[in-house]
Amino acid sequence: MSELLDVEEFSELLNKITTRELLEKLTETVQRADPEHSHHLIEAIKNELYSMQDDQYQAEMELENAKKEEYRQKVLETIREVKEEHGDRVLHVVAEANEDYDDWYSSDEPEYYIEDPEGVIKLLKRLENILLEASWPDQWRLRLELLEEVLNLDLEIDDYYAGSFETIKDVIEEIEMLTDDGMSVSSVWNSIVASCLLNQQEDLDTRLADLFEKAVCYDLSLDIFTSPAVNEKLDAKIKLTIATKWFDLLASGEFGNLRDAVENGLKWIPDLELQKEYVLKLVRSIPYFRVLSSECFP
């Protein structure tokens, strides 16, 4: 009973001091201990601290894995929702011309107002939030799958005559421009690209080939070099490998405006001669790059 009281009293004393004070007292106690026993005391304390760190790390990993699994299930459920509830129908927003708009004069008035009776803009914003909610590298493919479902929706802007659209991405971007709401496809894509490049558990060639295929299929940006997180976390050797492999993919065909992709990719290739080699490779594959090559290497 006396030992129990001693423990309770000791616990009360510990609760009255800060962690810093406890560490100072513990250090002083060890230093004053009999040298014959101090080594064993230090080893016992170290082992206990290491055990506490291991327990804390394990608890943090379990919490992290639980969050990742919760997010994975959320994305999978969202993919099912998009397919089942929206995959087989046309979604509409309605453009209403602004009668007060006059393109002869500078005006803050919008040319069109957008009405959204079906809640399409709200849907797009919710999907964007889910896609940007987490950025674990090993879940980039799952997020990409959800983005594909969004880009495969049948979406129209009724009574809108300001332009034509070649892809659903164009429609989504136009809605965002007109309403300052909905989904920023570029933000979502850039986030997925960054996660992909940081996921070094997967084969690099496979990752880049899959990214490239989706970028070409859905007219997404081929400039994969702009993420601050990727620039900071990847070492120079990995970035060089990514840049050269990506340039090999760019040289495989003609893919619209590649100026930003090439200019930013060249920053990941520190060797000037290697830069020239890849620019010349693109020149041979894509004629308009003769202009860019003369600007890069006058």
Low-confidence region ranges: 1-5
SSE order in H/E notation? HHHEEHHEHHHHHHHH
What's the main sheet like? 3 strands, mixed
End-to-end span in angstroms?
Answer: 89 Å
| Integer-rounded radius of gyration | 29 Å
Q: What structural category do the secondary elements indicate?
A: mainly alpha
Q: For the largest beta sheet, what order do the strands appear in spatially? A: 2-1-3
- Total of DSSP H or I helical runs spanning 4+ residues: 13
Quick one: overall form?
extended
Task: Report helical residue fraction.
Answer: 55-70%
- Percent of residues in beta strands? 5-15%
Average pLDDT confidence is 85
Number of strands: 3
Describe it:
The protein has helices at residues 2-15, 19-32, 35-86, 120-133, 140-151, 168-179, 185-198, 204-217, 228-233, 236-250, 259-266, 272-285, 289-296; strands spanning 90-97, 112-115, 154-158. It is mainly alpha-helical and 298 residues long. The protein has a three-stranded mixed beta sheet with strand order 2-1-3, with helices on one face. The longest helix has 52 residues, at 35-86. The protein is extended and about 90 Å long. 20% of the residues are buried.
What structural keywords apply?
13 helices, mainly alpha, 298 residues, 3-stranded mixed sheet
Question: How are the SSEs placed, and which strands pair?
Answer:
Elements: H1 2-15, H2 19-32, H3 35-86, E1 90-97, E2 112-115, H4 120-133, H5 140-151, E3 154-158, H6 168-179, H7 185-198, H8 204-217, H9 228-233, H10 236-250, H11 259-266, H12 272-285, H13 289-296
Parallel strand pairs: 1-3
Antiparallel strand pairs: 1-2
Helix pairs in contact: 3-5, 5-7, 8-10, 12-13
